Amino acid sequence: MASMDLMAPPGANTGLALAEPVPVRPSRVKARIGRVIAGILGVLLLIFILGPLVWMGIAAFAKQWKYPSMLPQSWTLSFWSQVFSSQGLLPALGLSVRFAVLATLASCVICLPAAYAMGRMRFPGRKVILIGLFATNAFPKMGLFVSIATLFYWMNLMNTQLGVVIVQALGTVVTMTWIPAAAFASVPPSLIEAARDAGAGRLRVFFSITFRLALPGIMVAVVLAFLACFDEAQGTYLIGAPNYITLPTKMYALAVNAPIQSAAVFAIVLCIPSIILMLLVRKSVMGGQLAEGFQLK
Amino acid sequence: MTTTATDSASSGQVDRRSRDDRVPGLQLSGISKDLGGRTIVHSMDLTVPQGELICLLGPSGCGKTTTLRMIGGFLTPDAGRLTIAGRDFTYAPPEKRPTAMVFQNYALWPHMSVTGNIAFGLKIRKLSKAEIREKVDWALELVHLTHHRDTMPARISGGEQQRVALARALVLEPQVLLLDEPLSNLDAKLRIQVREDIREIQQRLGITTVLVTHDQDEALSVADRIAVMNGGRIEHNAEPTTLYSRPRTAFVASFVGAMNWIESGPSGGGIPLQDGTILPSDHLSADHGDRIGLRPEDLLPAPAGTEGTAPAEVERSIPRGHYREVVLRCGGTELRSYTALNLAEGETVGLRAGRALVYSDGELQGGEAAGAGEAQAFERRAAVQRAVASDALDSGPDSGGSGPEPDPAADRSALA
User: Which of B97, B103, B109, B168 to mutate to test the interface with A (most CBs of A within 10 A)?
Assistant: First the structure.
């Protein structure tokens, strides 16, 4: 523009300026509309996610709550004392933790080597296996569990701890393979070569470099797997009941038989271990490590 | 503390130097490699004397990185033999080789501090804590990064990461240092500084070094010798000055430095241009060929009408600081010249060529005795120029008069 001004005579200059309309900054208006829409969507999403939780939180303390009132007519703590004094709460919690830990460990032992192979090796059928693993999620769970139950009857695994662990571990296979595989795959080959160049043998390269760099991704998978096992109800119920009643299976029964308030209290109780676990791993999951773990290529 | 570290390390260097210097630091004989059904390296021979820095220079896909990776042990040759200081390492894995590599992207381990990165290889060698500390201090001192010893690699700049990678390689006191395009990720200014640092350290430690690059500037400025590779073969392996002034093939001539190409052989004791004008040359490497190469600094503009010149017009004149890059049109051919003269665009000058390299089938013709020192070549060139200068004075009359106005080129083209 400046050079144009210099070149054009003063009269022509004004004409030139008029011919070119002054921009009205439409971008700012657009940006504002965009922000409003994003805000509305955000609030809707928040209601969708938090709404049921809020309802659950209130219901746990409601004595009487009738439509269309937004809040209960009267409050009580009786359902809490009822749930906590009910038999088998603590043993159920203990069982839940035990099964979840064992199933997660089993899943690590089985899935992590597979994940390493998928992530770092090229072999025929690799893609098929990866997609196949994913496809297991396409079938209705209950149908699978029923056929598993038939198999377990034959193998004498019904109503055994091993059976429950197997059923819970099965549910984590996709998570425990896909995410660590991506984490292993994202370790740059040059870092591994540099370690070998420095004199590291294969085992040391694996533990000092490959595994260490994939660890954030593996941790994410382990946490997700643990939570999945901890909350698993259908398979555990089918295989474990009545000998092994975990918190989720207990709640499963409650949701059908007991007043809504008891189920709400139970659901809150069930949330607590998950929340504690989330808080514990928050640092490694949120501190950029989650993002690191998910650098998929 | 640091001084003792340096002392002990440099005494280590004395050991290295006192080894038999007649045994080459690195030798490749008949090394070949196929990858994906394509031959990447063709039966390659390369000898690097102890303590020399050799540059593998070439375009991407020429096999230079494959060669480096074979030296480092990341690839196994399909044929041939590779020895380091006389010992056969053809099939040894990287962890069993006395080589250390600086990777193109540095490949620093992000979960280890600078010290952790440098100490990694020493820990594997089961050195004592004190020894490791001493050596790490020495390496940090060497690359001037003592202040970053506890920093994580992600928190330092690219140039500093590069130096950490160098320190990590050098701390292992390798017999051969491998540098894979070490400067390609740095900005222009830093590149020059780091390459000087690398050269200085390499010479101080006297370490046999192979540097892979596609940047001819980098190769010319740091290497003792340059091996220009093309299509999996070494086309020319020579000292930088020889490589530049007498490139054995047309490929090498175009790849290293700028070159004006005239697509015809010499005639009439000069260089025939597009419209038949003969550009006089002080020295033609041979009388017969099919292609002539002229370095921009070998195109010598003079005031218009000067004896023994062809007329040329200045099309563009680009200031390059201490010199000028001038695009000249001479006899219908566009030629590029570097000159100290302050030429303006549109100006007419007289043009003469200094040394002209004549190629036939892509091979340099009359390249003088192969392996002759470049000092001699310069001497010869200076002598030739002196002779030509006096010749021009003597033979003034027969090339169309010595006045400033007449057009000698017209006479010459008429003669031709």
Answer: B109
